[in-house]
Amino acid sequence: MFARVKDFLYRHRRKFVIGGAIIGGVAVLSRYAEFKLLEWHDQQTRILMEKQKKRQHYENTHRTANATVLSLSLNMKEVISKELDADILLQAVREQPQHKHSIWEQLKIVGFSRAISTVYIASLVASAVRVQLMLLAGYTFGDVIQSCHAGAPISQTLQQKYLSVLHYLVEKGIPKLTSQVTQAVTHIVTGLPLGRPLTLSQLEAIFQEIKLILAGENSSQDDLYERKITKLEPWSRYVFEAPVPPEGDSGEDRILYNMLIETDDIIDSEDFSTVVDTLIQHGFNHLLDRMADFYPLPKSQQGFCGSNENWVDNVSRDILPNVSTSEVDSFPLTQITPTHSTSFSNNSSLPVAKLVPLLSGVVHGALSPTPGQLLQKILTVDKLDSLGANVYEAFALPFGQ
Ligand SMILES: *[C@@H]1O[C@H](CO)[C@@H](O)[C@H](O)[C@H]1NC(C)=O
Ligand SMILES: *[C@@H]1O[C@H](CO)[C@@H](O)[C@H](O)[C@H]1NC(C)=O
Ligand SMILES: *[C@@H]1O[C@H](CO)[C@@H](O)[C@H](O)[C@H]1NC(C)=O
Ligand SMILES: *[C@@H]1O[C@H](CO)[C@@H](O)[C@H](O)[C@H]1NC(C)=O
Ligand SMILES: *[C@@H]1O[C@H](CO)[C@@H](O)[C@H](O)[C@H]1NC(C)=O
Ligand SMILES: *[C@@H]1O[C@H](CO)[C@@H](O)[C@H](O)[C@H]1NC(C)=O
User: Fold this and answer.
1) Rounded to whole angstroms, how far apart are CA atoms 386 and 271?
2) Which atom of ligand 5 is nearest to the CA of 347?
3) Coiled-coil region(s) at which residues (predicted)?
4) Is residue 104 part of a domain?
5) Number of domains in the chain
6) Which domain holds residue 344?
7) Ligand 1 atom index nearest CA of 371
8) Centre of ligand 6 from the C-alpha of residue 347, in Å
9) CA of 129 to the centre of ligand 1 (A)
10) How many whole angstroms from 342 Cα to the centroid of ligand 3?
């Protein structure tokens, strides 16, 4: 009996040996797996925490960028009001009534330029600030997640030096941009009679034409060349001066130089240009919405239609649209009671002379940090967020790569 069992065992011993190995193997493996599992779990937790930290870091940067743009709103307003001074012209109208015709012609250009500059400046500042802060955040990401350092730490001094570039944007860039906008506006608007009624879509067409010139797209070149009108891009022209390579090959100056070169590349990229363009379009839409509020409803005004025409004729004859001159600059647009807010007919129109003070005053509301205003609207555009996120991701390399 036992002999048979022994024999059986003998004949199958290899199987038992192998079986034992398998059983032991499973035991060993599971202990190893457990270890691996723990290790994996730790790693996941670390990645998760890192992701969370990264997400927080990104969102903080986003918030800071928002706050920076809003805090620059006052500076933007000041520079626009200084470069395109409507008050001085209004005073001149009062003091030299004999020249009111030519002064109103200037006021027309200033009014249009102020509104359009506002759109361009808000769009450029919002985009440039987002790119700069996200790039800086990407660079400092390694310092934030201390465990895995990407490179040399970015000192406070270096960060400040990098951000001080924003002074250039406000002090030099905005005036430069304003002056180019004014040239394009002058080109388009000069021949527009003050008494000419404009429908909203005609006003939009004027904006579009100015936009085309500024994009360098309507190149009836001789004409533009003669008037020295150049297209706006590259955008880096307004954001900073071309960075100068430092003497040495290392140190903070070299890092700063590299950061500026990289910023320059982004700001002159097609992606950036597309984003700014989108923001500008949003800006114009907002502007037209605000203007629409002041267009009369033809139905309710039907009875006054005749006198309305008379008024327009009188304005064009007299060039004294006294009506709203006092509103220029002294009122934020929001404080003027809109005629209505919703639908209006395509045929409803306002004379240029009435539009000028409204356009001129738009800067105050548009660049105030109040929700629903142009600057806030621009900060919510998706494309701006994607641009910022892409820049952040590109520079925030994970795990010390
Ligand atoms: C930035 O500002 C915009 C506009 O106010 C807002 O919609 C967005 O949520 C803000 N983002 C952050 C991260 O604060
Ligand atoms: C733009 O181009 C069209 C057609 O080439 C031309 O008629 C128009 O005058 C141009 N506008 C400006 C502002 O140059
Ligand atoms: C326009 O001018 C005419 C004649 O000068 C005058 O009779 C009329 O009252 C004026 N209309 C308005 C709205 O000022
Ligand atoms: C227009 O304004 C001037 C000065 O601001 C004033 O003297 C004149 O009376 C005004 N005219 C009308 C029709 O309100
Ligand atoms: C305004 O014009 C557009 C196209 O020009 C047209 O589709 C729309 O129906 C018009 N609206 C009114 C109220 O006339
Ligand atoms: C708008 O103007 C066109 C012609 O200029 C006219 O046929 C149409 O009836 C007008 N529509 C309204 C709502 O006044």
Assistant:
1) 10
2) 14
3) none
4) yes
5) 1
6) 37-395
7) 5
8) 6
9) 14
10) 30
Note whether residue 267 is domain-resident: yes
Q: What is the pLDDT along the chain (401 residues), one digit of tens a residue?
A: 567 667 766 676 666 555 555 555 556 666 777 777 778 778 888 888 888 888 899 999 999 999 999 999 999 999 999 999 988 888 888 888 888 888 999 999 999 999 999 999 999 999 999 999 999 999 888 776 654 444 567 788 888 889 888 889 999 999 999 999 999 999 999 989 988 999 999 999 999 999 998 998 765 555 555 556 678 889 999 998 888 888 877 788 888 999 999 999 999 999 999 999 999 999 999 999 999 988 877 554 443 333 344 343 444 344 434 444 333 333 333 333 444 444 455 678 889 988 999 999 999 999 988 888 999 999 999 999 999 999 999 988 754 43
Asked whether residue 1 is assigned to any structural domain, the reply reads: no
- Of the residues 183, 220, 227, which should be mutated to test ligand 2's pocket, given the most ligand atoms within 8 Å of the CB? 220
Ligand (nearest to CA of 209): 2
Q: Is 52 in the pocket of ligand 6 (CB under 6 A)?
A: no
DSSP 368: S
Per this entry, what is the length of the chain? Answer: 401
Fill in the amino acid letter for 197: P
DSSP SS3 for 351 = strand
Q: At what angle do helices 305-318 and 352-366 cross, to 10 degrees?
A: 90
Neighbours of 23 (CB within 10 A): 11
Global pTM exceeds 0.85 = no
Identify how many contiguous H helices and E strands the chain contains and give both numbers. 17, 2
In a domain, 29, yes or no: no
